[in-house]
Amino acid sequence: MSVVGRYSSGKISIMTEITCSIVIPVYNSEQSLTELHQRISNVLINENVTYEIIFIDDYSHDNSWEVLKKIKMQDDNCVIIRLIRNFGQHNALLCGMKKAKGKYIICLDDDLQHPPEEIPKFLSAVDEKTQVIYGKYSEKRHSRLENSLSSIFQYFIHRILNMPKSIYYSSFVLYDQNFMKYISSLQISRVFLPALVAQVVPPMRIKNITVLHEPRKFGRSNYSLSKYFKYSLTLLINHSSLPLRLVSVIGILISFVSFLFGFIIFIRHFLDPSYGLMGWTSLIVALTFFNGMVLFSLGILGEYMHRMLSEMTYTQPYIIERIID
Predict the structure, then answer these.
(1) pTM exceeds 0.90 for this model
(2) What's the CA gap between 132 and 168, in Å, rounded?
(3) Mean pLDDT across the stretch 140-166?
(4) Alpha helix segments (H runs only) across 184-280
């Protein structure tokens, strides 16, 4: 029988297994943290489940860490972690997930766009066959540009990971203990959680539930065009052979065109011995094009080599500067 981990007295009276771990990556969100913590606590106390809330400060430049320390002083169910530098949302999430002790791990953003009041929907949707539950927004409350970028990125994820289009990926998600067992031993420096899910969880063990998505109350989204590009590059290079295949196809096409061009010149010269290349322009253009393709190919191969070296030397996905539990 579950026993709530905190009572109004502010003390944990009975030590028991934690049912739910809430994991929240934090970056420059000092204005929303207090309300976020209070709403999460109220929801889980009303649900009568044991819980912990893990905040991971991804090296914020505002007063987020100071706010988290105040929250921790008031609530022993909180664990706060500060990373030594900014590692990115997915790396911070992995850090918190590995520290989590709950039977289920629910991840949500720090900006209040994921309403904590939707958490019970995830817990109600849990069954023996499901390992991952993604929240699918009934309506995304972003700007048109952000919604467009998100839709393109969603399509990109499905294409690269070869996952069914019926699965909607979001950062409002529940993982069970089995998923954590799979990834706890992984050593990877560039973390992209949907790719890890695609590697170890069959599609039939993933499902969606409909959740609300609220307008942003404070500041601007941390998801810029450059961040989408960064995650797209990680997805392409770390979890796909598409760039290498693309270079191979381009190389084959260029070789075929060059062979065809040489064959045409040979035939015309055979029919008309006076025929020859007219000027140096075509030669310079051809050399420039082919040299550019060589450099492009070497750039892609170099990126692969760099990432392989990073993984072989095991660049850590995160480094904890301080933890208060």
Answers:
(1) no
(2) 11
(3) 86
(4) 193-200, 225-238, 242-271
